[in-house]
Amino acid sequence: MTPGGPSLQLNNFVGQSEAAAVIMPEPKPFERLPAMVRPTHYNITLQPNLVKCVFQGSEEITLDIKEPTREIKFNTLELSLRDIKVRLGEGESVKPSSTDISTTTETATLSFDRPLPAGTATLSLSFSGELNDKMKGMYRSKYTSVDGEERYSAVTQFEATDARRCFPCWDEPALKATFDITLVVPHDRIPLSNMPEESRVPHESDSNLQVVKFSRSPLMSTYLVAVVVGEYDHVEDTSSDGIKVRVYTPVGKQEQGKFALEVATKVLPYYKEYFKIAYPLPKMDLIAIADFSVGAMENWGLVTYRETCLLVDPHNTSASQRQWIALVVGHELAHQWFGNLVTMEWWTHLWLNEGYATFVEFLCVDHLFPEYDIWTQFVTNTYVRALELDCLKNSHPIEVPVGHPSEVDEIFDDISYSKGASVIRMLHCYLGDKDFRAGMNKYLTRHQYGNTYTEDLWSALSEASKKPVAEVMSTWTKQTGFPMITVASHQDGDNRVLTLTQQRFLADGSAGDSSQWMVPISISTQEDPSKVAQELLLESRTMQVVLENVSESTWVKLNPGTVGYYRTQYPPEMLTQLIPAIQDKCLPPLDRLGVFNDLFSMVQAGHTSTVEVLKILRAFEDEEDFTVWSAVHNCVARLNQLLSHTDFHSTFAAFVRQLFSRIGQRLGWEAKPGEKHLDTLLRSLVLGQLGLYGDKGVVGEARKRLSAHVAHTTTLPADLRSPVYKTVVAQADEKTYEQMLKLYREADLHEEKDRISRSLGATRDPNLIQRVLQFAMSSEVRNQDTVFVIISVAMTAPGRSAAWAFFKKHYQELVDRYEGGYLVTRLIKYITENFTSEDMAREVEAFFKDRQIPGTERTVQQSLETIRLNAAWLNRDQQTIKKYLADLHL
Ligand code: BES
Ligand code: ZN
């Protein structure tokens, strides 16, 4: 989810028995809050102490008691509660006879001597807690003030289940209420919340403080409440539909908010038009937070971001980061409708939020920046990433039963995001834009301020389209995995007859189970490569299609545009017909990379030899399209991980150098005036590859350019920094390493710090590897960034074992530092999944056997499966790859 994060999984083959074991974590005992008592309104006052890093709060919650009850149960975690009482309708107050607080269920249960009558009541209480350093609940985020002093902001991050760490509440998405929020803050701090400020008065007893009250919110879920108190500057504008938009930045850096401001002010009216529903709040704030666990969070009216996901410094921000910022802003603003206005009933339907927002972020970036060709990039990132995870036996269905908070955390993964978005894209194509939009509008209008199940979306879309949406889509959301469509072809006079057969595709090449999907299929032919020649819905296991007047000497291709969420397996003759169309670029880019990527997945599953892919790779030497090259790069990177420990890795490196050399020559080091965005991205990809695989010319030039950069004679353009840093660090000695650290320390922009710290792992020197790992854990690197530095180390062969040893040694420290959650899950995935032997699989398995970090269980299973798939793949193809490469005499 964080940009540029490495996402290399390796898959593989038939009958490797251990890979077949699917050990799903046992569901943890969990109960939802009792339905007898529901909140309708919260009146909350919060007073963070930014020096002592604690906070005080008080609240009054209006309750609707549906039946007389002696118990009230709500969520609370790591808070001390005081002065609890309930005022009943007539004004009489009762105190609970006991308060039972459970840290396992994260609840408090108040018991009363006599039943509280049905009707309205008000629960009031005071509470206090710590502004923690775990980036959840209400926490502290560190910054340096203009005069160089270290200070803290108070910030909230509640999704999925951490509002309960800030104020006692009914912390479930379906329990929507209105919120009155009041903040008690020092005069010189900016207080922000979801709604605009309504009043501000001096505190009655402390002249340093003021009491700031915000307007009442609409009905909303607790996980979307937000508060920030700190020192910020801002830029602002009003969107064409009258919404006041502000981007808050660190003090003195408001210029860096301009890009996001421009995007946000355009996106709001775009969505208003797209959904045909106005943004319901009077203001929209976007704010950059120095310490932030995920990339960004869609709190209604106050969206919080990592600095790197919001701030653009025209001289130091790369084109790819700018593109990423546009996507993130588009994503979070999509949630303002999809997620905030209409919310999933329970976390099982999380994908409705995340899958949909991931789809829509591309729609809106395509609208704002057509030159990004963003839909093509969707395929190389989002779509391919989903298929790669989803071919594991340890994948899971999009809709997954979850209860306990740690299970909820775990589903913020590539299935909810990337598979979710991919199946929505497929559906969008199946329904057509007009019906899709009409259905969306029905859904959002019908359920606004309410909650939904996945089925509610299907009903609205099928009403609008008159197509069997629920029937088709439930095969994609309720089953794990996806089909492989096997094609057979014969000629019948002038007509070509295809026989299509579906079967679950599994990474180990085994036949899979009896799952079947309803698959919207389209077909293109050589006559007009960019046109869909035929469309059909594959509803059974197998089906015949007649293509009229299509000769046997021309190519036929499934899945034009790579929209269908499936793999295609062609017979050798059909594949052979497609190769020239790749080479002469008659096939559109998305189809070139689609054919290639499907073939690579067949290789990983053992249906075809890796050598077939190496042969086809050579057909790409003249390729010019960025997205096709990034598909090639994905494949090369996986092979590199697989082969990194073999005795012929240097031959493989020579092969890759040759593959990228022509395009490297063509692009050169200097950006052409007014060149295309995608060429800028391509240059950085290609030079990075040539540098990584040790092309002498590129290594020399990178050194030269870095020296000039360090000496302040010629500044490296932001787009070239990452490839140059990595190239130089890969060969670095102590002195160069020190130089990189100096650059890191001098860097003011977070993006630049990330770029440097994530390059350090490229070193192969055992001593430097240890230094990088220690640096990752030092106070110089924020907790939010530590894991990415360690992951960068794990991307090389010597680094991988070192990172694993380091992880084992610092296991407890890491667990305590993050207390579970998304960052540790990422760390475990990337440092383990690239191992390639059964021995390592056993070691990783043994390590996690008695150390289960809640929320990482499934990730561990997926990694084990992947390691075993790697091992089988290597065994299977190692010798033939070696011979093929040797025979090339590179
Ligand atoms: N709702 C999520 C933030 C989130 C993620 C909360 C994980 C809790 C756990 C937000 O909308 C989101 O998806 N953020 C992404 C960025 C997005 C552009 C893919 C992220 O943080 O990486
Ligand atoms: Zn999201």
TrEMBL record:
Annotated keywords: Aminopeptidase, Cytoplasm, Hydrolase, Metal-binding, Metalloprotease, Protease, Zinc
SUPFAM superfamilies per record: Leukotriene A4 hydrolase N-terminal domain, Metalloproteases ('zincins'), catalytic domain
UniProt-annotated site: Transition state stabilizer, residues: Y417
Organism domain of life: Eukaryota
Cofactor: Zn(2+)
GO cellular component: cytoplasm; extracellular space; plasma membrane
Record membrane topology: Lipid-anchor; GPI-anchor
One GO MF term: peptide binding
Active site per the UniProt annotation: E332
Record-annotated ERAP1-like C-terminal domain positions: 555-868
Entry's cofactor comment: Binds 1 zinc ion per subunit.
Top-level enzyme category: hydrolase
Residues covered by the Peptidase M1 membrane alanine aminopeptidase domain: 259-476
Domain Aminopeptidase N-like N-terminal: 39-224
Subcellular localization(s) per the UniProt record: Cell membrane; Cytoplasm
Pfam families, sorted: ERAP1_C (PF11838), Peptidase_M1 (PF01433), Peptidase_M1_N (PF17900)
Amino acids binding Zn(2+): H331, H335, E354
Main location (coarse class): membrane
The protein's Enzyme Commission number: 3.4.11.-
Catalytic activities: Release of an N-terminal amino acid, preferentially alanine, from a wide range of peptides, amides and arylamides
InterPro entries named among the record's database cross-references: Aminopeptidase_N-like_N, Aminopeptidase_N-like_N_sf, ERAP1-like_C_dom, M1_APN-typ, Peptidase_M1, Peptidase_M1_aminopeptidases, Peptidase_M1_dom, Peptidase_M4/M1_CTD_sf
One of the protein's GO biological processes: peptide catabolic process
Family according to the record: Belongs to the peptidase M1 family.
Protein name: Aminopeptidase
Natural source organism: Petrolisthes cinctipes (Flat porcelain crab)
